[in-house]
Amino acid sequence: MTLGPDIRPRRLRTTPAMRRMVSETRVHPSQLVLPMFVREGIDAPQPISSMPGVVQHTTESMRGAIVEAAGAGIGGIMLFGIPLLKDAVGSGATDENGILNVATRIAVEEAGDALLVQTDLCLDEFTDHGHCGVLSSDGRVDNDASLERYREMALAQAAAGSQLLGLSGMMDGQVAAVRDELDANGYLDTAILGYGAKYASAFYGPFRDAVDSSLQGDRRTYQQDPGNRREGLREAMLDCEQGADIVMVKPAMSYLDVLADVAAVSDIPVWAYQVSGEYSMIEAAAANGWIDRERAIDESLISIVRAGADAVLTYWAVEYARTLR
Ligand code: PBG
C-alpha cells in the first residue's frame, strides 16, 4: 500500500491534450472588438509613440485595416475620431462631415456584414478642454447640457450608419437620453453600449496620446473612484434600467471583481475594455525582454473572459484572433 493523497487534481494536467479538453475558458475571435483611431487631415497613418503597433489611421488606411480585421474573423471595430479643430462644445462630433461620421460611413460600407461597426459617443476627442462633456460658466462639467450634445451626437452617428453607440462619457442619464433621441427619430435598431462602470484610471494614459487630448484637470467628477466596487454594479444596473443593450466594464484587468459582479446579475451582454495602458504595459515589458509577450496577451484576455466578459475590446484583437485559429 502506498501513502499519498486520494484526490489528485494534477491528473487533469498531465498532457496538452488533457489540458485542452478540460479547459474552462475559451475565447472565440467573434468576441473581440478592435478599437481604431481615425485622424483628420493626415495623408499617411501616424504611429502612436506610447502604443507601439497602434496607429492613427487615415480613412484610406482604415479601409485596409477593416479588410484585415474581417479576415481575422473578429466581431467588430470601435471607431474614435481625431478632428483637426477642437472647440469648447466639440462641434466636430455632430458635424456630418466631421471625421468620425465620415469614417463611420466608409467603415460601414467596407465592413458589410463581416464586422459590427461601433462608434465612441463622447466629446473628449472633440473638445479643446478635453473633457467628456461641455463646461458650465464656472468651469465644471455640466451633466445635463452634455446630454443635449450626446443626443445630437447620437443622431449624427446613427445617420452615418453606426450600429452600436459606445456611450463612454459617464454623464448621469446618458443612456436614457440617447435612447429617447434615437427612438424619436426612427433609429429603433441602433443599439447602445453603456459604459456602465467606468473608472477614473491611470491606464487611459496612452489613449490621451492616441487622440491628441489636452485634458485640463482630471475626470474624477464623472468617472468612478477605483476603490468603489458596489458603485460599479450600481452604475451598470442603471444603464440596464435605462435601456442599454450591452453594458461595459472599463478598464478590464484591474476591475475583474466589478466585471464578475456585473456578469453575475446582468441579463444583457457584458463587455470589457482592455484599455491602452493595459496594452502598453505588456508591450513595454515584452520589449524589454521582461515578459513573454504572447503568453501575457493570452493570459490577460483569458482572465477577462473568465471573469465574465462576453466580448472584449482590445488593441490586440486582430493578432490574437489569428492565434485562436
Ligand atoms: C472617452 C474614452 C476614453 C477611452 C475610451 N473612451 C478616455 C477616457 O475616458 O479618458 C480610453 C480607452 C483606452 O485607454 O484605451 N472617449
Automatic annotation (TrEMBL):
Naturally occurring in which organism (per UniProt) = Homoserinimonas hongtaonis
Q: Which residues form a coiled coil?
A: none
Know the name of this protein? Answer: Delta-aminolevulinic acid dehydratase
The family note in this entry says: Belongs to the ALAD family.
Q: Name one GO biological process term.
A: protoporphyrinogen IX biosynthetic process
Q: Which reaction equation describes what this protein catalyses? A: 2 5-aminolevulinate = porphobilinogen + 2 H2O + H(+)
Q: What is its EC number?
A: 4.2.1.24
In this chain, 5-aminolevulinate 1 is annotated as bound at 208, 219
* Subunit and partners: Homooctamer.
Keywords noted in UniProt: Heme biosynthesis, Lyase, Magnesium, Metal-binding, Porphyrin biosynthesis
| InterPro entries (alphabetical) | ALAD, ALAD_AS, Aldolase_TIM
Write out the residues that bind Mg(2+). 235
Q: Which SMART domains match?
A: ALAD
